[in-house]
Amino acid sequence: MAKGKHLALIAHDRKKDALSMWVKAHEAALTGHTISCTATTGGVIEKNSPGLKVVKTKSGPLGGDQQIGALIAEGEIDLLVFFTDPLSPHPHDVDVKALTRLATVYDIPMACSKATADLIIASGFLD
Ligand SMILES: O=C(CO)COP(=O)(O)O
């Protein structure tokens, strides 16, 4: 049953467990939406929530963040959940900044932590 929204789910390495647990906790709300992920994040979500269908881009450091950014620029993405790790350096930091910048430019809801992601679920945005 398609609910019709297109969600982008991404997490930095030290946040992947937290995102995967968040996805598991909200699997019912996420089911039926289109889900796009960067490659490694998508693999973790597929493993822990095999019922969800996930479309994977390249890994973030290899251009995946830019691919998700391009989807945002094309008006394809309704929600970005991106659990960022502000305490680790990332070789593709410019891509991370570009992605969060585009989410702001196109004014799509963006959650960079569990607290905000929980609020978006609680808002009924995905119902
Ligand atoms: O690097 C990322 C976000 O900046 C995520 O990429 P992966 O999901 O491939 O680890």
What's the CATH first level? Alpha Beta
Major β-sheet profile: 5 strands, parallel
Alpha-carbon distance between the termini? 12 Å
Strand composition percent: 15-25%
Helix content bin: 40-55%
Unreliable runs, pLDDT <50, ≥5 residues? Answer: none
What topology, given as strand order, has the largest sheet?
3-2-1-4-5
CATH architecture: 3-Layer(aba) Sandwich
- H/E series, N to C? EHHEHEHEHEH
Q: Give the name of the CATH superfamily.
A: Methylglyoxal synthase-like domain
Rough shape?
A: globular
List each distinct ligand once: 1,3-dihydroxyacetonephosphate
Number of helices: 6
Query: In total, how many domains does the architecture comprise?
Result: 1
Mean pLDDT over all positions:
97
- Integer-rounded radius of gyration: 13 Å
